[in-house]
Amino acid sequence: MTRPTSRRAGGRFALVSLFIALATVVFGAGPVPAADAGSWWEPTARPAPDSQINVTGTPFKGTDAQGKVRGFIDAHNHLMSNEGFGGRMICGQTFSEAGVADALKDCPEHYPDGSGALFEHLTGGDNGKHDPVGWPTFKDWPANNSLSHQQNYYAWVERAWRGGQRVLVNDLVTNGLICSLLPRDRGCDEMDAIRLEARKSYEMQAYIDKMYGGPGKGWFRIVLDAAQARSVIEQGKLAVVLGVETSEPFGCKQILDVAQCGKADIDKGLDELYGLGVRSMFLCHKFDNALCGVRFDSGTTGVAVNIGQFLSTGTFWTTEQCAGPQQDNPIGLVAPAAMAEKLPAGVSVPSYASNAKCNTRGLTRLGEYALKGMMQRGMMLELDHMSVKAAGRALDMLEAEEYPGVISSHSWMDLDWTERVYRLGGFVAEYMHGAQGFIGEAAQKAALRKKYGVGLGYGTDMNGVGGWPGPAGADAPNAVKYPFRSFDGGSVLDRQVTGERTWDLNTDGAAHNGLVPDWVEQIRLTPGGPGVVDELSRGAESYLTTWKATEKHELGVNLASGRPASASTTQWWNPFVDYSPGLTVDGDTGTRWASEWSDDQWLQVDLGEVRRVGRVTLDWERAYARGYRIELSEDGTNWKSAWSTEAGDGGYDTAEFASQPARYVRVHGVTRATQWGYSLYELTVSRS
Fold first, then answer.
1. 30, pLDDT greater than 50
2. Which of 27, 85, 473, 632 sees the fewest Cβ atoms within 10 Å?
3. Does 541 share its domain with 586?
4. Which of 311, 333, 359 is the last residue of a domain?
């Protein structure tokens, strides 16, 4: 399909939804109007009572001397996850027209003493009981180790923005299986939850706009392309990008290894998500699905998730020895009683060999189709949560297209993939660890960031059931000294106050989003931290660079598509199975050419006329070539070798060489890697 025109000229995508219409009212077809002069950052009518912000000073705006925006990026947050999972896993709301007392209250089953909070107990946040009262006392929540209470109240998000954050990726999130196990107010269809969370995000924008005098005047701006985001940030406001992180996108779950979706579902789903304003997404999350295998959770949590996978799909995770240095997380072996009792009688979690640390499941053919669909629409792929087998295949495909739209947003990718991400032009953010842990992880890839000239992001995963930095103590060497100045020096931040509770990072840890600036200050006060804060201040610019490059990217034209193909031999199996060479250029990854079972075999395609050729991509079946070469000819008689290897590893191979004229392109197998012949699903030929 062709790409939506809105990505290029500000026009609307063909499937214009209510959400895009709302955004268009604000943004129109061009840059966002300039902010009003004066104290534009102060609302004209904040609800009363409400949370305090506890920040003074003018938010910085504009660009630096090099024309680049400044500011932090939270690349992974879940503003609306209280609307997912059936509506009762995350208690409390990001905003409410009825005010803060309605927004920041606990789930009904948590009253009177928290003993009914099933999910909170399972995740270990309250040791069996907690005070359910939120506003105005907040005795027990939000807390850095409480995984079921709202951390993204709009005023706390506002404080993070005032403290220097300029981009926030709002990942719409849910899980149908978890929904089915918990109390709920609504159904468990994952796409219904994604639609609701998108709608609530636009409603939050309108809610904040109303405080500032009308549409477009608030600091919270949902953006649809990189140019809009840059315009928002140059005004000093917060650019909000919609993403999706869910286990069954488009209904693509699997049951007993049978996919519950098809290509038409994927096309419809991607069109719908793009119409909602979604610009980045995960193809799998927590459970293996019909698109890809997941990177395991580890420890006890991993066992609980593995049980959840069985309940959802009918299969447990399966492992194998890793093919390379990358590996998935190790799987714990102690099953939480609350989850183990959900298993049918006689079923238990399997044991796993200690030397088999990789998921056997990679990127499926449907997953490849979805990834190609994302590239056609100019969307960014979130690599985190993919098994290393799936991530490696995805990177192969992205590299074959030189597609820059790839992101690791919260430390769920094997770090050995980092340079491949940067080489493509992608973006990396770390999970919101404690200050020392964050600095330590940043140091591991500091040389690569310098090499590629990129900044760094953080992914808070607020409302994402992850756990957050605990209190360092008031006497810690890197204790935050209140009040303190923001990294740019323009704002002063004091302890944050909501109702009767005063929050202090030193004694409370990162309990909610409003304490993110305090956490950044603690990083600055930690040895090695000032340089990391400087890299964080360049994170928004790096993210925008990746996004813009993704939008501008033109997918390569396959010069071999539909052209005549021939081969030295074709395997004959029976009259009802076709392995002819033309199947490698038919655009269908479910068909393939297969040769007879001997080494010296070739397949060639006639481009119809002499063209410039500089790249050949091969999608091998299990019967692949260890040694082979790419040969070119202008007349079909005189051949020259343009590229060769003796170390082919199958999968997705891309051969690049100096562009040169050719009408005929031949893949010449020299040495088989298996006992069978050579077999190719697809052959792609392009200029470069």
1. no
2. 473
3. no
4. 359
The residue with greater pLDDT, 11 or 185, is: 185
Bond from prior residue into 31 cis (ω within 30 degrees of 0): no
* Closest C-alpha among 469, 28, 440 to residue 221: 28
- Same-domain check for residues 263 and 384: yes
Q: Are 495 and 171 in contact (CB under 8 A)?
A: no
Kindly state whether residues 371 and 470 are assigned to the same domain: yes
CA atoms within 13 A on the CB side of 169: 37
- The helix/strand/coil state of 197 is helix
Q: How far apart are CA 473 and CA 107, in angstroms?
A: 31
At 300, list the tokens.
Answer: 């006890």
The residues that bridge with 484 in the sheet, in sequence order, are 493
Query: Which 8-state DSSP code applies to residue 295?
Result: P
Tens of pLDDT, residue by residue over 639-656, are 999 999 999 999 999 999
Q: What number of other Cβ atoms are within 10 A of residue 12's Cβ? A: 17
* 220, amino acid identity: F
**Residue 478 to residues 123, 460, 687, Cα–Cα distance (Å):** 29, 20, 55
Q: What are the residues facing 406 on neighbouring strands?
A: 381
**Any idea what DSSP says for residue 246?**
E
Concatenated DSSP letters of 325-352: S--PPPPP----HHHHTTSPTT--PPP-
Residue 616 to residues 190, 534, 604, 607, 652, Cα–Cα distance (Å): 39, 41, 12, 13, 11
What pLDDT score does 270 carry? 98
Residues 640, 681, single domain; the answer is yes
Instruction: Note the residue count of the chain.
Output: 688
Tell me how crowded residue 525 is: count the other CB atoms within 10 A of its CB.
Answer: 19
Q: What is the CATH number of the domain that holds 191?
A: 3.20.20.140
Tokens of 105: 């209250």
Full domain range(s) for residue 546: 72-88+152-293+361-550
Question: Do 339 and 201 fall within a single domain?
Answer: no
Closest CA to 487 of 453, 518, 526: 518
- 151 CB contacts (<8 Å, ≥6 apart)? 142, 462, 463, 511, 512, 513
Reported as a single tens digit per residue, the pLDDT across 658-676 is 999 999 999 999 999 999 9
What is the C-alpha separation between 168 and 220, in angstroms, rounded? 10
Instruction: Identify the pLDDT of residue 125.
Output: 67
Q: pTM of the prediction?
A: 0.92
Q: How far apart, in whole angstroms, are the C-alpha atoms of residue 505 and residue 144?
A: 10
**Tokens found for residue 366:** 């449907």
Torsion of Cα atoms, 605 then 608 then 614 then 616, to 10°: -20
CA distance 613 to 609: 12
Residue type, 539: G
| Residue pointed to by tokens 């002063």 | 492
Q: Tell me the per-residue pLDDT of 60-116, one tens digit each, with 9 for 90 and over.
A: 999 988 999 999 999 999 999 999 999 999 999 999 999 999 999 999 999 999 999
Q: Which of 515, 467, 472 is nearest to 145 (CA)?
A: 467
Q: List, in order, residues 6 or more apart from 345 with CB less than 8 Å away.
A: none
Q: Look up residue 210 and give its two tokens.
A: 């109303």
Determine the Cα–Cα distance for residues 472 and 431; give it in Å rounded to an integer: 18
Q: Do the Cβ atoms of 422 and 404 come closer than 8 Å? A: no
pLDDT value of residue 19: 34
- Asked if the model's pLDDT at residue 32 lies above 80, the reply is no
